[in-house]
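User
Class, as today's exercise, I want you to study this protein, comparing sequence with structure tokens, and judge whether sequence predicts the tokens.
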Amino acid sequence: MRKNGRLLSLLVLCTVLVVLSMSAPAAEEGSGVPGTYGGYLFSKLDNIGTKSEGRSYYLQLWDDSEIHIIKNGILWQSDPELDALLDTKVTITGIMEDGQLRYTKIEPFKW
């Protein structure tokens, strides 16, 4: 019984440390230094009813806040790299610019 309690405590501690490390950005906004962010990648339809209608991409962080992702491409076109991982948990590396993330690398989230 005592051994199971210690194991459970260790497991909870490890889980808390992982969640805290993923929710804290590695770089400050506007610093020009790449930061790594983890969360859920999703999109919204933007500029509805105009010639510029297209997807806007967002990363929902573990604390439920959202970061707008600046896509690589033209306003109304989809970003194939982001589309491939849409609606999944991802890890994104990029630079924060005016509250938006200009990504340089995106990959599936690894536990």
Summary: The domain at 2-108 is CATH 2.40.50 (OB fold (Dihydrolipoamide Acetyltransferase, E2P)). The first strand starts at residue 35 and ends at 46.
